[in-house]
Amino acid sequence: MIQILSRVSNVRSISDNIWAINLVSPEIASIVKPGQFINVKVSESYMPLLRRPFSVQQVNADEITIIFSVYGLGTALLSKKRPGEILDIIGPLGNSFNTEDKFDTALLVGGGIGVAPFPFLTSILKRSTKNIITYLGARSSTHVITQQLENVKVATDDGSMGYHGTVVDLLRKDFSGSQYGNPKIFACGPTPMLRSISKLIQEIQVPCEASFESAMACGFGICQGCPVELVNDEKKYALVCKDGPVFDIRSIRIPYGS
Amino acid sequence: MIQILSRVSNVRSISDNIWAINLVSPEIASIVKPGQFINVKVSESYMPLLRRPFSVQQVNADEITIIFSVYGLGTALLSKKRPGEILDIIGPLGNSFNTEDKFDTALLVGGGIGVAPFPFLTSILKRSTKNIITYLGARSSTHVITQQLENVKVATDDGSMGYHGTVVDLLRKDFSGSQYGNPKIFACGPTPMLRSISKLIQEIQVPCEASFESAMACGFGICQGCPVELVNDEKKYALVCKDGPVFDIRSIRIPYGS
Amino acid sequence: MVVNTEVNIGVLKLNNPVLVASGTFGYGDECKEMVELHKLGGIVTKSLSLNPRIGNPPPRIVETTGGMLNSIGLANIGVKKFIQDKLPFLKSIGTSVIVNIAASSVDEYCMVLSLLEEQEGIDGYEINISCPNVKDGGLSFGTNLSITVEITKRLRSLTTKPLIIKLTPNVTKISDFARAASDEGADAVAVINTLVGLAVDIRTRKPKLSTITGGLSGPAIKPVALAKVYEIARSVKISIIGIGGIMTAEDAIEFMLVGASAVQVGTANFIDPSTAVKVADGIVLYCTQNKIDSVQKLTGAMQY
Amino acid sequence: MVVNTEVNIGVLKLNNPVLVASGTFGYGDECKEMVELHKLGGIVTKSLSLNPRIGNPPPRIVETTGGMLNSIGLANIGVKKFIQDKLPFLKSIGTSVIVNIAASSVDEYCMVLSLLEEQEGIDGYEINISCPNVKDGGLSFGTNLSITVEITKRLRSLTTKPLIIKLTPNVTKISDFARAASDEGADAVAVINTLVGLAVDIRTRKPKLSTITGGLSGPAIKPVALAKVYEIARSVKISIIGIGGIMTAEDAIEFMLVGASAVQVGTANFIDPSTAVKVADGIVLYCTQNKIDSVQKLTGAMQY
Ligand SMILES: Cc1cc2nc3c(=O)[nH]c(=O)nc-3n(C[C@H](O)[C@H](O)[C@H](O)COP(=O)(O)OP(=O)(O)OC[C@H]3O[C@@H](n4cnc5c(N)ncnc54)[C@H](O)[C@@H]3O)c2cc1C
Ligand SMILES: Cc1cc2nc3c(=O)[nH]c(=O)nc-3n(C[C@H](O)[C@H](O)[C@H](O)COP(=O)(O)OP(=O)(O)OC[C@H]3O[C@@H](n4cnc5c(N)ncnc54)[C@H](O)[C@@H]3O)c2cc1C
Ligand SMILES: Cc1cc2nc3c(=O)[nH]c(=O)nc-3n(C[C@H](O)[C@H](O)[C@H](O)COP(=O)(O)O)c2cc1C
Ligand SMILES: Cc1cc2nc3c(=O)[nH]c(=O)nc-3n(C[C@H](O)[C@H](O)[C@H](O)COP(=O)(O)O)c2cc1C
Ligand code: FES
Ligand code: FES
To answer: How many beta carbons lie within 10 A of that of residue B147, not counting itself?
Structure first.
């Protein structure tokens, strides 16, 4: 984990309201693992005050890429950065997806901007001989980001592309038909999606690692601000920024709300 | 006084650390008088929170121009505005220089960015048959802005251009030699400059209107935040934003400090 | 859907819940060219004292992160000049007129209120016992429970019009003061006045305000103000007018959800004098989108 | 010019006046890769209680204008695990180690301190009687003068090491509490802990923190913190450690000018964990530029 001034080498809109930024950071690029994130100082003033966390979407030589949807002030400011500008970032942060345990088929399940860590995860998985199938859920076709992903199956809320329904429904349907050989699910997306995956997992008994989000003050373990509740653990809470963001989905009591 | 969304038509650096912005605002351009100012919302966030006041430097048809030195956060943000952006401005604010009373020679005396209202003042004065002589003080030659001014005499602190010394010393010297015919001084600049002019006025007994500054919260008379102290007046204070910024220099007890 | 925007503050009926706060909108006439004044829920005047006050020496204003410090020192034209020069215009607007009173003694409060009682067109009084920027009265009243009781009692005996006590946040337990006001018959409390704050110019090593300390306002203080309103809402029944850092309809709705029946916009007026009008419109939009037919229903509707 | 950066907090000598604040720097080891820890004036640990505390349910963090609300609820590993797992590293850094203690009873404070007294390498204690986010103890202690007296007295009798009482700003007159601490023999007061604040999500109509209210920190509160330090500096003689919204050396110098002998950097660590190091460097630069040969001379040097 280092704090570093990193040069923006590219900023582009990759889809409806979704932006990608490339950052030159050999130090982070050389050690980051899929599922980890960086914490970005988006403003030179105190508004917003706190850094904003973003998953590393891809690594190319010296550069890391993040993608994000413009949500509030922080992401709006970020979308206005220009190549050549310098960003103060901290990373790599958090744990990562485990790509080395025993499974043959990686099922990447992402909702909305939750697709963010998958291109990098896919690159790493492709180094092994695992099968990769990617399930993407989005509001509608304009929100689907398939770049750098393998064997993509799409579900949209409005039916404008692929399956008409949620991505977890699509996954359930596929499981109810044929079975994937020795699968493991890698999930990232909004809380309601994680909650339905968690339910599905209980039905189909497939191992699943999921990336969780939480409001964060520091991102590196000093504020205790980002707990998720553990199931049956005397410690009761784990920190998303340090113990996570990736957890065995069965170990987490997923909160209600979005 | 109106609040209006005004389009930036031009942004340029006109000198060392000095910027000029043109704003399209027929409503203000058609009624503004020399010495008046506008109050500009420089940020879309709450940092800085308050508007920033700037003298109207010039008026051309539908457009007004402001010039400013980059000082803190507000002016830094302003210098990064781009043509086409929309600024929320309030104006015209304050009273104005009186160009119509009985004098034959207008002596415009400005220090640093205090030159700001003079191009517009000069345009108005040129409509009459008055003589105009402009005295400019600056730290050094790179800080001297002579555009759109008449008969400019320069004083620099470092002697790199014109008279070596303060602009008030230069003025005093000129007065001690020949006399200007029926003169009136129009002054704008930092407090120490106004204080020395005030002293000079007592010696030479020439009428003088000066533009004063004060920290401002509103700029249009509702916060009571911008007083200057009056000499011998039971009201004790006048508001820079409403009763000023232009005052007969003899009526104001000029504060110490910068 | 038509949203009913009327709210009641004790016996005072407001067209909508968004007023402009004392000291941040002058006497109403200064903004007439820029603001659709009749759309305001009400105008609270600058604090008025018996005699004119010149206020504190400059500097009176400092900007801070997300807020500002002021040390105006209750500069005002005095109640008599107000009645003569300002009240006629205020009456003509067609919105509620609340006159804010500040004083250095209990007797002075009474005298000012008595003079105002002779006038028509005043819809209520807001009593400033919480100004941090004057030597006499001000905070020394607002942080003293028995004086709060006495001021409320005396003024209550002089008027049947809506009486609003404006409280300071600079106390350990603001609900004690709200209860005192309530027990003595006030119609409402206005919460909060500014927090005591200070700023230093490290170049000159002097305080940035002539009075050294001043009052902090603006979005920086909103969380504190919300906590104070919430504390009071859980302990008294009278209406609460929420104040502190309101810049948007969202901010105002937060205040209503924790228990305010109405709100006041202060510092935001300096940045956009039409803020209160926009906030009022925004509250209606929120109600419409959430199928709430009356803004009154927002009061205390926080789920917890 | 060589600037002497040493300052004294009672009997405690610090290498420089800039510490990191409790709860905003963990136990020091989390930041070792990013921060030159030996350059800190001191590390104040997360508040430690007798037994581990799991803390409050999420959400615990909300950002506000120029600040943040937290409701961590004193989540900590407990004093025994601290002594075992964290103290060895802290001792090895070469900076002053201040252990912050929080408790739900006077006895618990005493037990924690007694356990720590058996250890070497602890340079002083900071007593948190001002946490707004726990049900038992916390603010109910810090807003109660007689409990403040009792806690200080009892702990003073147990240790000769530097004893710092950390005060809450959520009181009418903070100088009364500083005087109580001073009278009972505390070496210093640390000022301020967070202000009680609240935020509501108007979409869900729920409070944004699980505990409804939380503690406000960050640059938004700096003016309030400066006013509290100033108030105390005029009424007690013991050292003051200034805290609240310090982001830059300029901010820290403001605190020293109004009377602080040292400062703590809190929230800023979340944004830049090296803030305290940069602040310490910036203070030296300021002293050099202003021909001040010792940072101690800044304390109380405001001109007024
Ligand atoms: C480990 C991690 C990885 C993430 N990766 C990505 C990514 O790759 N791409 C992406 O678009 N987004 C990602 N996010 C979410 C992203 O951080 C938020 O979208 C961003 O902080 C919003 O900032 P804002 O200023 O635009 O919005 P704000 O104006 O701050 O509004 C943000 C809203 O979202 C909530 N929020 C604030 N911070 C967070 C947060 N850290 N997590 C969740 N909600 C938050 C706030 O409570 C608020 O309601 C990630 C979050 C985490 C924790
Ligand atoms: C009537 C009037 C007309 C002005 N015209 C011009 C102009 O034409 N060109 C120009 O460059 N500047 C002008 N100024 C000054 C200009 O408003 C300030 O330079 C600007 O507000 C600085 O903002 P900032 O955010 O960059 O600096 P900040 O970060 O706000 O720092 C500003 C510093 O200057 C002080 N300051 C803040 N606001 C003001 C203010 N309104 N007046 C004086 N000092 C202030 C603050 O106390 C602070 O110390 C004028 C000021 C007034 C009152
Ligand atoms: C410049 C200024 C002057 C004020 N004058 C008064 C006043 O005369 N009487 C009063 O009761 N409150 C006064 N206040 C307090 C406001 O009415 C309000 O309570 C406070 O500013 C908090 O609200 P805000 O954050 O929206 O500004 C004043 C505030 C400011 C900023
Ligand atoms: C997330 C967080 C956790 C905190 N935990 C503690 C704590 O455990 N003990 C304590 O005495 N103060 C705690 N504080 C208060 C800080 O030490 C400090 O007094 C306060 O945040 C004001 O300083 P700042 O504005 O620089 O953050 C905490 C503050 C924050 C923001
Ligand atoms: S965000 Fe600070 S501990 Fe996780
Ligand atoms: S700046 Fe508000 S009255 Fe002048």
So the answer is: 14
Q: Tokens 């505990």 sit at which residue? A: D211
Q: Listing from the earlier edge strand, what are the strands of the sheet with B252-253?
A: B237-239, B227-230, B252-253
Residue C31 catalytic?
Answer: no
Beta-carbon count within 10 A of C117 CB: 13
Phi first, then psi: give them for residue A71, nearest 5 degrees: -115, -65
Range A2-93 has CATH code 2.40.50.140: no
Rounded CA separation D222/A114 (Å): 37
Per-residue pLDDT, D80: 96
CA of B93 to the centre of ligand 5 (A): 48
d(CA C203, CA C64): 16
pTM: 0.96
Mode of pairing for the β-strands spanning C239-243 and D61-64? unpaired
* Element containing residue B108 per DSSP (H, E): strand B105-111
Look at the block and give the residue holding tokens 């005192």: C180
* Nearest CA residue ID for atom 26, ligand 3: C266
Residue ranges lining ligand 5, Cβ < 6 Å = A 216-219, 221-226, 239, 241-242
What is the Å distance from ligand 5's center to D208 Cα?
17
Is the CB of D71 within 6 Å of ligand 4? Answer: no
ipTM value greater than 0.85: yes
DSSP C202-257: TTTTEESSTTSEEEEESGGGHHHHHHHHHHHHTT--SEEEEESS--SHHHHHHHHH
pLDDT of residue B73: 94
Residue B108: strand pairing partners: B134, B186
Kindly report, residue by residue over C116-161, the tens digit of the pLDDT.
999 999 999 999 998 777 667 667 888 999 999 999 999 999 999 9
**In this structure, how many other beta carbons lie within 10 angstroms of the beta carbon of residue B7?**
15
pLDDT in tens, A52-69: 999 999 999 999 999 999
Residue of C37, C69, C1, C65 whose CA lies nearest to C207: C69
Q: What share of chain A is helix, strand, coil (3-state, %, to 5)?
A: 20, 35, 45
Chain D residues near residue B47 by CB distance under 8 angstroms:
66
Touching A: which chains, 3+ CB pairs < 8 A?
Answer: B, C, D
Q: Which residues of chain D have pLDDT under 50?
A: none
Sequence ranges of the domains in chain B: 2-93, 105-253
- The amino acid occupying position C41 is G
Angle, CA C136 vertex, CA C131 and CA C139 arms, to 5°: 35
The bound ligand whose nearest atom lies closest to the alpha carbon of B237 is: 6
Residue B244 above 90 pLDDT? yes
Query: Comparing A175-189, C167-181, C280-294, D60-74, which segment has the lowest mean pLDDT?
Result: A175-189
D209 in C contact zone (CB under 8 Å) = no
- Predicted local distance difference test score (pLDDT) of residue C137: 66
Minimal C-alpha gap between C79 and chain B (Å): 16
Q: Which domains does chain C have, with CATH numbers?
A: 7-56+72-194+216-298 (3.20.20.70)
Strands, sheet with A183-188, edge to edge from the N-terminal-most edge strand: A163-164, A152-156, A131-138, A105-111, A183-188, A208-211, A246-248
Q: From B45, which residue of chain A is nearest by alpha-carbon distance?
A: A47
Angstrom distance (rounded) from CA C23 to CA C44? 8
Taking residue C284's Cβ as centre, other Cβ atoms within 10 Å add up to 18
Q: Which atom number of ligand 1 is nearest to the Cα of residue A74?
A: 25
CB-neighbour burial class of residue A147 (10 A; exposed 0-12, middle 13-18, buried 19+): middle
Are D96 and D14 in contact by the 8 Å Cβ rule? The answer is yes
Most confident of A238-242, B140-144, C103-107: A238-242
Query: How many other β-carbons are positioned within 10 Å of the β-carbon of residue C54?
Result: 17
B105-253 has CATH 3.40.50.80 classification: yes
Contacts 24+ apart (CB under 8 A), C145-150: C145/C176, C145/C177, C145/C180, C147/C106, C148/C177, C148/C180, C148/C181, C149/C180, C149/C183, C149/C184, C150/C106
